[in-house]
Amino acid sequence: MGYVDAHTHAVFREIITDELLNFAINEWHAPRELLLMSVKEFVKILDDSEIEYIGVMAHPSRKLGVAKEDYALKVIDAVKDYADRFAVIGGVEANELTVEEVRYWLGRQYEAGISAIKVHPPHMWLKPNAYRPEEGGLKQLGLVYQFAEDHGLPVYIHTGTSAFSKARNKYGDPIFVDDVAVDFPRLTILMSHVGRPNWVPTAFQLIRIRRNIYADLSSIPPKRLLEYIPRLTEISEKSVYGSDYPGPGVYDIKANLKEFLNIQIPREDLIKIASDNPKKILKPLSRTR
Ligand SMILES: [Zn+2]
Separation of 243 CA from ligand 1 center, angstroms? Predict the structure, then answer.
């Protein structure tokens, strides 16, 4: 049985920059040795954790000063010898680029083999529905969703707060994801963090009523998952497990998975969430190139 951790921020010695290292130490409070692991060392941890593959976030975060659109290409290059163990999640900062630049970077990332696209409203400082005419009409963002829909790439959209010093949390409200689900009906949307902590009811309701919105359970401590989402089993067909490693407080990828597998819901629901569902939605690099 191989599990999938669909949401990590794993970084590797081969490609980490000083900016990213400092950011991860200062904002994630992650231990330095975790951040300086090689890809090969990381794969050993996955083996030991019975994790078949992980999703690695590699979207740009200019405002946090850590990455631009080429970062996804660097991550893909770093993990290519273990292409069945990693899915790389790319993205573009729609409100920082021209329409032509958005097209160019999406094309390059897609050709390189990204498995999904990430939109992070509180870090990018934009509403997830900012492409709508009544929300400012940002064409570049509409293009991102259209590209994802046309190319069968799922889109992760961060919902809920972010504790990072440069985050703008007004953009974390999941209600704005509703427009995306309606305007791009063939798009698979992973609603990251289910709006935690303060917007969970909104997120939960959208996951229930919108066929194409799924729950990405990452960064909610597994021990508290049923406190946040008491009716989790109602959405177990539409939920995927993720740890958010090595984000704040999540420094042991194996222990986090174990804690998840111990929560008090039927075993079949746990298997759906940590294996079957993510395997349907997120392809590893070996299946995207
Ligand atoms: Zn994350």
Answer: 8
Distance from the alpha carbon of residue 164 to the mean position of ligand 1, in angstroms: 12
CA of 246 to the centre of ligand 1 (A): 9
Sequence ranges of the domains in the chain: 3-287
Architecture field, domain 3-287: Alpha-Beta Barrel (3.20)
pLDDT in tens, the chain (289 residues): 599 999 999 999 999 999 999 999 999 999 999 999 999 999 999 999 999 999 999 999 999 988 999 999 999 999 999 999 999 999 999 999 999 999 999 999 999 999 999 999 999 999 999 999 999 999 999 999 999 999 999 999 999 999 999 999 999 999 999 999 999 999 999 999 999 999 999 999 999 999 999 999 999 999 999 999 999 999 999 999 999 999 989 999 999 999 999 999 999 999 999 999 999 999 999 999 8
Q: What is the Å distance from ligand 1's center to 218 Cα?
A: 7
Determine the residue type at 57.
Answer: M
User: Ligand 1: distance of its center to the CA of 156 in Å?
Assistant: 10
Can you tell me whether residue 149 is helix, strand or coil? helix
Residue 99 CA to ligand 1 center (angstroms) comes to 26
First-to-last CA distance in the chain?
24
